[in-house]
Structure formats: C-alpha cells, structure tokens
C-alpha cells in the first residue's frame, strides 16, 4: 500500500506563487491531501495550525511542509517514501538541493555530508554538518506530534530564520537522524524568484535581525 501524504504550503503571496503551487500539485504521484495555507501571519503560525487541525495520524503516513518558491523534482514523493522505509532511525528528510548554486547555498555545510546508500536510496545524513533547509521537510506524523508546535510563532515575526534549526534540533533530541534524500530520477529541484513588496522585504530583514540579536532557543 502506498503512503498517504499531507502536503502543506504556507504562502503570504498566493497570486505570485500560484503557478509554482500548480506545478507542485501536478507533480504529486502518491495519494495526497494537498493544502495551501494562509501564511500572512507567518509561516510557522500557519504550520502550527496545520499540525493542530489537518494532520491525522490515522489517515496520513507522511507529513511534508513545502515553501511556496520551490518546485520539487518529479516523483519526489517516492524518494521520500523510500527514505522513510529504508534509512535506519530516520526522523526528518528533505530533497537534496546540491545540484544548483541556490541549493548549495541553502544546504550550506550539509552539502559536504557524505551520501550513504541504503538499498536503492541514497541519503545524505547531515547530523553534525547542518540542519535540513526548511524549504522542504518530511517526517512521520507521529514524530511531528512529538515535536509539537513551534513555540515562537506569535512573537511578532513573520519570517523565522531559526525554524529549520529548531525542527531539526527537536528531531535530534528525540534520538532521530535527519538529512537529504537524493531524487530518484526526474529534473532537479527548481527555485523560483518573486518580486516581493518593499514592506515584506523590510519586515523579513528586521525579523532576521531580531533573531540574530536574541536567538529563541539554545
């Protein structure tokens, strides 16, 4: 039996991201509940809402969060499902991004982690190298429940420079591994570029500066 995914995409710019979201929907190859979330109060506020109201452990076997500015490679769900089934002690995985300059920038030191083969799955275990980038993260619903909601979603920020680090930290604290699965066939992950408003760009800069001055967690 195929895994069933819950895929959620928070967006504060539905008009700009509409074509990207359409391409993401077209690329689904597994049974999926595909939900676009209102992200105007912030990404993590939207994901907290999804965790509380949309994720059903008796219906979903994989929970994936995706940013609204990437297009995942064809059959990415099969790559994730295979990683979940084959990589020992896996907790969280993203789709490997090392095939482009943008991807390597997001992965940072994680791009240098070795690739380990588990049967037909090639997995880049980044524990000890770098967190998985928050652009795309998949985990089992039971683990998402254990991690719980992001605790700083209502502190006034819309942009969260620490959300990927926080989620990976929680995974590690529960004794699980995290990293990137290499796509099984298909085109590489694509990054989209939007012309955001000056107001949003300034808010993002200020939110990042706020976090740098006083990180939310150790």
Task: Provide an overview of this structure.
The chain has an eight-stranded mixed beta sheet with strand order 2-1-3-8-5-9-7-6, with helices on both faces. It has 218 residues and is an alpha/beta fold. The mean pLDDT is 92. Strand 6 and strand 7 form a beta hairpin. The protein has a single domain (5-213), classed as Spore Coat Polysaccharide Biosynthesis Protein SpsA, Chain A (Alpha-Beta Complex), CATH 3.90.550. It has helices spanning 14-26, 43-53, 76-86, 101-107, 141-147, 163-173, 198-213, and strands at 5-11, 32-38, 62-66, 70-71, 90-95, 115-118, 121-125, 136-139, 177-181, 190-191. It is built from seven helices and ten strands.
Write the layout of secondary structure elements.
Elements: E1 5-11, H1 14-26, E2 32-38, H2 43-53, E3 62-66, E4 70-71, H3 76-86, E5 90-95, H4 101-107, E6 115-118, E7 121-125, E8 136-139, H5 141-147, H6 163-173, E9 177-181, E10 190-191, H7 198-213
Parallel strand pairs: 1-2, 1-3, 5-9
Antiparallel strand pairs: 3-8, 4-10, 5-8, 6-7, 7-9
CATH superfamily: Spore Coat Polysaccharide Biosynthesis Protein SpsA, Chain A
User: What fraction strand?
Assistant: 15-25%
Q: What name is given to the CATH topology?
A: Spore Coat Polysaccharide Biosynthesis Protein SpsA, Chain A
Q: State the shape.
A: globular
Helix tally equals 7
Q: Provide the number of structural domains.
A: 1
Helix and strand string, N-terminal first? Answer: EHEHEEHEHEEEHHEEH
Helix content: 25-40%
Major sheet characteristics: 8 strands, mixed
Q: Can you tell me the CATH class? A: Alpha Beta
Contiguous uncertain segments of 5+ residues: none
């Amino acid at each position: 039996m195929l895994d069933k995914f819950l895929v959620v995409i928070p967006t504060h710019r539905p008009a700009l991201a509409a074509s990207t979201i359409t391409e993401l929907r077209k690329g689904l190859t597994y049974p999926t509940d595909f939900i676009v979330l209102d992200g105007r109060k912030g990404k993590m506020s939207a994901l907290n809402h999804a965790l509380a109201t949309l994720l059903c452990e008796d219906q979903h076997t994989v929970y994936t969060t995706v940013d609204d500015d990437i297009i995942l490679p064809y059959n990415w769900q099969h790559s994730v499902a295979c990683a979940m089934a084959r990589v020992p002690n896996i907790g969280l995985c993203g789709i490997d991004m090392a095939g482009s300059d943008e991807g390597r920038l997001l992965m940072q030191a994680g791009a240098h982690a070795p690739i380990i083969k588990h049967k037909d799955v090639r997995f880049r275990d980044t524990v000890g190298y770098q967190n998985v980038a928050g652009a795309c993260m998949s985990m089992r619903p039971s683990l998402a429940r254990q991690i719980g909601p992001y605790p700083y979603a209502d502190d006034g920020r819309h942009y969260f420079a620490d959300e990927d680090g926080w989620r990976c930290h929680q995974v590690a604290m529960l004794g699980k591994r995290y990293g990137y699965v290499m796509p099984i066939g298909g085109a590489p992950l694509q990054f989209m570029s939007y012309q955001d408003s000056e107001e949003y760009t300034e808010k993002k800069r200020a939110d990042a500066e706020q976090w740098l001055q006083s990180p939310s967690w150790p």
